[in-house]
Amino acid sequence: MTRPIPTPGQLEDWLSEPTPAVVETMRRVQGDLIILGVAGKMGPSLGRMARRASNAAGIKRRILGVARFSSPQVQADLEQHGIETIRCDLLDEAAVRRLPDAPNVLYLPAMKFGATGQESLTWAMNTHLPAIVCRRFPQSRFVAFSTGNVYGLVPATGGGSRETDAPAPIGEYGMSCLGRERLFEHFSRTQGTAVTLIRLNYACDLRYGVLVDLARKVLGSEPVDLGMSWFNTIWQADTNAMTLRCFEHAASPPLVLNLTGPELLNVRDTCTRFGRLFGREAAFTGTESATALLSNAHRAFNLFGTPRISADQLIAWVAGWLQNGGPTLDRPTHFEKRDGRF
């Protein structure tokens, strides 16, 4: 799949374009879909893809998006694309009890940035909230996002952490995310709730992601820290498509899937490539390390196939996007943190 660089007006359409396999999944999966935490980075395009796939499949279903909606524009955009929105503080148990029933629940809420200094809220969001939601929707199918931060740092030569590896999170954020998984597992086992847990790192949508962080530094002639010398990434549209297909694989106890691209990318090499594309030399600081936060996503690839968009294409897109003045979310991933403090 090769395309020119999308324009800002095209980007959301590209991110929400369903694959034929997603359309077939939305044809087979029965019932309404509720998306918790829909107003975050991934929620709007996931909601739109689910809506477009359901329409293409000829299936009438409600798609409900739940969030606090601090941005009225996000809420308005979702409504415009056929997603019913509900304002709700998900930590308010009474409010969650009033949410409509739905046999399919897409769980997106999490707290990462700002976790250091707000540890109690981090644990409430990442560990207490799953219990609230699982009690509210005990018979629903869940697809719930987790993170590769539940793993420890591993040698790049090993190909990345696998789902069968023992978790070894670094720092309270990673520990709280493992807590989220354990709560979903507990309710899956005790209630029979079907769950797929997605350990994601890192989605790229041209406005956000590790590649955007690195490219902006090179473009701005800022030195790039080499401490976290390797990373994975995946095009967000591929993430969205695989995520929706996970509803057919939800199980009790939960199915755990790593979700990222197949390439192990080296920071120095990637920044050098950006430098060539930008016509300037990349600068570096720090010492390269043999270990990094890396995931092996072959279990997901065996189910869904490999991502349509390669890392090479993403690098070219990100470079062109920034050179053309494309907007960014201005929210660094802080992927380079090795101490787990975000």
Alpha-carbon Rg, integer: 19 Å
User: Which class do the helix and strand fractions yield?
Assistant: alpha/beta
Biggest β-sheet description: 7 strands, parallel
The top-level CATH class of the domain at 10-204 and 235-263 and 294-308 is Alpha Beta
Cα shape:
globular
Output mean pLDDT: 96
The stretches of 5 or more residues where confidence is low (pLDDT under 50) are none
Would you report the number of β strands? Answer: 15
Q: Quick one: CATH superfamily of the domain at 10-204 and 235-263 and 294-308?
A: NAD(P)-binding Rossmann-like Domain
Distance between the termini: 35 Å
Strand order of the largest sheet: 3-2-1-4-5-7-12
User: Could you estimate the helical fraction of the residues in percent?
Assistant: 40-55%
The CATH topology of the domain at 10-204 and 235-263 and 294-308 turns out to be Rossmann fold
Beta-strand fraction estimate: 15-25%
Tell me what the CATH architecture of the domain at 10-204 and 235-263 and 294-308 is: 3-Layer(aba) Sandwich
Number of helices: 12
How do the SSEs run, as a string of H and E? Answer: HHEHEHEHEHEEHEEHEEEHEEHEEHH
